[in-house]
Amino acid sequence: MRKGGNTPVPADTVRIELGWRAGPGAPDVDASALLLVSGKVRSDGDFVFYNQAAHSSGAVRHEGKRTAGDTVTDTLSVDLARVEPTVDTVVLAASADGGTFGQVPGLNIRVLNAAGGAEIARFDSEDATVETAFVLGELYRRQGAWKFRAVGQGYQSGLAGLATDFGISVDEPQQTPARPAAPAPGPAAPPNAGQNPYAAQNPPAAPAPPSGPPAGAYPPPTPTAVSTPLPPPPPTAPATPAPAPAGAPVSLSKVTLTKEAPSVSLTKQGGTSGTMRINLNWQVHKQFSGWASKLGRAMAMHSDLDLDLGALFELADGSKGVVQALGNSFGSLHQPPFIHLDADDRTGSRAAGENLTINLDHQKLFRRILVFVTIYEGARSFANLHATVTLQPQFGAPIDFSLDECTVPSPVCALALITNTGSELVVQREARYLVPQRGTSPQRTLDHAYGWGMNWTPGRK
Distance between CA atoms of 19 and 41, rounded to whole angstroms? Predict the structure, then answer.
């Protein structure tokens, strides 16, 4: 599609995939959505993004990132049948974390039919320069039906500036009012462009087709402080969210753990209740070097590799165990161990991958939790695996970190250790590759390394 073009959306449920190519110097990108009524949000709850993963209506959800080769996608799901009748537009946006969109190759947005995956629309952004946020497209109602429009409007003020323009109260200092990026030289805007924030800030090459909403339908809103309805927990199991503090603004902050700063207090970050989802996003490089090349096929491609996310747990009463796909030990969110593995993704085809969910409403019952990943089949080592671990509390800032390059023949990696100190819950970056002794399972190797003291028997999926 060209900028300004629109097309019908003949599906009740769609998947929005924001895609780009990863590479040296390319910043990370995050997808977000805003539900609008006459050009602005009704409350901060109408903003769906990495820190607020679901709309209260259940109509829009942020599903998370997935890597395939050098292509990364961040996905939103939209159930158009559940969008409230007063909502006339769902804005589909992107923000760059640590750079500009001029450094992001292959930026595009795709609208897919959730039933079957057929592509409905695609828009490729090709003129980005210094922008740090983009409105790439929008879903909007027209005569009782839904359409998609390719927008391609850039902002220099980041996600905070874009969100503020639509009426979101952001808990982040604003140096200047949100202003869009200066448009590249091109044809003059249509006469009514000044009434539409998209057209006024970066006019399309041609006026929007007459089938879309009329110009002036989206006047720039005035930011107001409103209460923030909290999102429901991930779909693995029902849970009742805690009430939001009155007047609490949306937080756009993230916490990144490094070797120099490897730990953070989840309690101090506000993660004291609700749920926390843990996700491993991984990418395999095809080139091998050193000892890995001597092993030949040391690492498999995505279609062959089966990675299993899991957790060793120890509760305050001394009980211990493991949550993992092996042995069908998927755990439970609402009874001990209050940890649940949502699925076993054996093909890499699930958009959300595998996720562990921890019920933080019962955090006083935890003593420690060790999150790990093992190779079940398809490779002998984590060589050439590049991965990011994300811990997404329902309340509080997301915590992420990258794994170091694996330089040993390891099929098991300890990712993060979560410890209850008695006064707070602390997340420690481990990123530790372990090499089992001959005849010793990866799980038993983890047990010995961290002193869990459990008895192990062979298991299968």
Answer: 25
Using an 8 Å Cβ cutoff, are 414 and 372 in contact?
Answer: yes
Spatial separation of the C-alpha atoms in residues 112 and 103, rounded to whole Å: 26
Buried b (16+ CB within 10 A) or exposed e, 181-191: bebeeeeebee
pLDDT tens digits, 386-421: 678 889 888 778 888 888 778 899 999 999 999 999
Alpha helix segments (H runs only) across 97-247 = 158-165, 197-201
Alpha helices in 56-184 (DSSP H): 158-165
Rounded distance, CA 33 to CA 108, Å? 15
Q: Which of 158, 36, 21 is nearest to 92 (CA)?
A: 36
Q: Are 32 and 101 in contact (CB under 8 A)?
A: no
Cβ atoms within 10 Å, residue 114: 17
Write down the pTM of the prediction: 0.54
Strand ranges, E, within 191-274: 255-256, 263-265
Residue 363 CA to residue 405 CA, distance in Å, equals 32
Order of strands across the sheet that contains 47-48? 6-8, 145-155, 133-142, 89-97, 28-36, 47-48
Task: For 266-303, give the DSSP string.
Answer: TTTTT-SSSEEEEEEEEEE-S---THHHHTSS-S--TT
DSSP 241: P
